[in-house]
Design goal:
Structural class: alpha/beta
Radius of gyration: 28 Å
Strand content: 5-15%
Number of strands: 13
Helix content: 55-70%
Distance between the termini: 65 Å
Strand order of the largest sheet: 3-10-7-2-6-4-5
């Protein structure tokens, strides 16, 4: 009994600040947890409450802990100024987040902070005239006014709450729940320490995986948003220095008497190599690629491994000239478009993922570099200002802008490809729907009609991807042109287990097969083949070489005919001096020694 009495007294003591400032605590908790509470209600109605209950409890206990800290500050200081400042802080956070949610479907994130930091006076004025007088803004103003009005009745609400019937029982239950929630929150205090210690984008990405930004309170969310640009700044500064150093070097054409070459560099997305009929898949998902291969214009590489199953990591390491196996970081070496531009190429960028999931750290991480205000003038002559619902629309925009003027050009296309929700990656028209769930003859115990539908959708997205890239081949067939295409990583779709996406597991060989083995092709026009016969032969000879495309920039220099001090021949897969290196594939869970695992599996 003594222990029980002691615990009771401790809980009562802990609850004292909340009892004194019950209205403040309640308002603060509710409004910093608005997104989390909304997700909680949604999970109840959607029937996923019991699946999400652990995450929800974790988020709610942390929100209670944060609200409690502010309540203690107000209760202990007994200062109206502290209380009003706390309310002002709360209202600001809430209004910013509710405005972003209503207007853009977002919450405060690192990318939003970055965009604010890079917004000039003209852009700010345009934003204000466009959005701050819109419907979402008026709803925000109304909600904020209601919140402020509520504060005028704070004393009366306190009186009402203290006059509730059965107050003793309600108080006992409340104190117990509060103590449990505070204990759950206190256990998580390390998340703030870890956030403070994040010195790089990778650190921040790992933190956000452990602490989903959509399931944390607005206070912690704002700290995360502010920390993002600070964590990115160090890496981006190094990358910018590397690019400016490259700008000072001499980059020339090997043979400027040859007509201008157009090099189209396409970064695909979430493409499972084993769903391509080019690589033996039974469904005819890549008829265009296969036709071009039969004609002798397309070369399919058979042993290409992604350096990561995360788009950001792949993009940064393939756009830069570093080599992971040689211990180089992406920011240690320059961005290859900078060298193309310095060599006289017209460089254009079309990115259909530029505004994909702006709340996500991966979008912020990549955009903070690709569209850094100092990188843009160094790397690009043209940045496509739009993103499109479907990749074909983006490719059509490129083809409409393309001119046959004999000038050297580098065109970068970053596709949505077969990204998450593949049924949304292509128009639902007869020309794109070639496969249905009835096409999928799979009978594993975990298989059902819905999963067969998802597999069919993936195959349709792959077919669509093949068809629209074929439009580029068709347009460039009479030009001196070369197209390089590979996917950033794979994405499971119930290929060998009951799993979709990029989940971890114990069967490392199968994870590597379906998440890291990627297709890669080089397509050459007839004109390009005629002008570069030896190089085309070298491409054909390279298709079976083991390759990790973090060093793709070196091959691009040779394909484009650029002579630069940054070119390293033993990193160029088309060179007879190419040197295969150890292939380390990195996931969010671990690093894999690809060849060691695959060879062991084959034995």
């Amino acid at each position: 009994m003594k222990l029980f009495q002691i615990l009771k007294k401790v809980c009562a003591f802990i609850a004292t600040p909340v009892k004194k400032e019950l209205v403040f605590f309640s308002i603060f908790f509710i409004f910093i947890s608005a997104t989390l509470l909304t997700n909680l209600v949604r999970s109840i109605f959607e029937g996923s409450f019991f699946e999400d209950i652990h995450l929800m409890a974790k988020g709610l206990s942390w929100s209670v802990f944060i609200a409690y800290l502010f309540t203690c500050l107000v209760a202990l200081t007994k200062s109206r100024i502290v209380k009003y400042l706390s309310y002002a802080f709360l209202i600001t956070l809430f209004s910013v987040n509710i405005f972003l949610r209503l207007t853009f479907g977002l919450t405060l994130s690192p990318l939003i902070i970055l965009m604010i930091g890079e917004t000039n006076a003209s852009e700010a004025s345009e934003f204000a005239s466009t959005f701050l007088l819109g419907k979402s803004a008026y709803i925000t103003y109304f909600v904020v006014i209601l919140l402020i009005a509520l504060l005028f009745f704070e004393k009366r609400l306190n009186v009402i709450l203290h006059r509730l019937p059965c107050k003793k029982y309600i108080s006992s239950i409340g104190v117990t729940l509060l103590s449990i929630m505070l204990l759950g929150g206190a256990i998580q205090i390390g998340k703030l320490i870890k956030l403070y210690q994040c010195d790089s984008i990778n650190d921040l990405a790992e933190w956000s995986i452990e602490n989903n930004p959509l399931l944390i309170d607005y206070v912690t969310g704002s700290l995360y948003a502010i920390k993002g640009p600070l964590a990115a700044e160090k890496e981006n500064e190094k990358a910018i220095i590397s690019c400016k150093e490259a700008q000072k070097q001499k980059h020339t054409l090997v043979n400027d008497s040859i007509p201008g070459v157009t090099l189209v560099y396409i970064l695909g997305e979430s493409y499972i190599k084993y769903h391509s009929s080019l690589y033996g898949y039974p469904h005819k998902t890549t008829p265009v690629f296969e036709r071009e291969m039969e004609r002798g214009n397309l070369f399919a590489f058979n042993d290409v491994v992604a350096c990561s199953n995360a788009t950001t990591v792949v993009a940064k390491n393939t756009f830069s000239l570093n080599c992971i196996a040689d211990g180089e970081k992406w920011y240690d070496k320059p961005f290859f478009p900078v060298i193309f531009k310095q060599a006289g190429f017209d460089v254009s960028m079309y990115d259909n993922q530029a505004d994909f999931d702006l709340n996500a750290d991966f979008t912020f991480s990549l955009n903070s570099f690709l569209y850094n205000k100092e990188i843009i003038p160094l790397a690009y002559d043209y940045l496509c200002p739009n993103t499109y619902k479907y990749d074909e629309e983006m490719i059509d925009a490129f083809l409409k802008r393309f001119k046959s003027d004999g000038k050297n050009a580098l065109v970068i296309l970053h596709l949505m490809g077969q990204h998450i929700q593949t049924k949304e990656r292509y128009p639902l028209t007869p020309e794109n729907i070639h496969f249905t769930r009835d096409s999928i003859h799979r009978n594993e115990p975990y298989m059902n009609d819905y999963k067969r539908f998802l597999i069919a959708s993936y195959d349709n997205a792959t077919y669509y991807n093949d068809r629209i890239i074929g439009k580029i081949f068709e347009r460039l067939k009479d030009e001196n042109a070369v197209v390089v295409y590979f996917a950033d990583h794979g994405d499971e779709v119930y290929d060998y287990r009951d799993s979709e996406g990029r989940n971890d597991g114990d069967d490392y060989a199968s994870i590597l097969k379906y998440q890291f083995d990627v297709p890669m092709i080089i397509w050459c026009s007839d004109s390009y083949k005629a002008l570069h016969p030896e190089l085309v032969t070298a491409i054909g000879d390279a298709t079976d070489k083991p390759y990790l495309p973090d060093v793709i920039g070196h091959s691009l220099f040779r394909l484009a005919g650029i002579q630069t001090p940054y070119y390293i021949e033993d990193r160029d897969v088309t060179s007879p001096h190419y040197k295969p290196r150890k292939r380390i594939a990195v996931s969010t869970a671990r690093e894999y020694d690809y060849d060691a695992i695959v060879k062991k599996k084959k034995k």
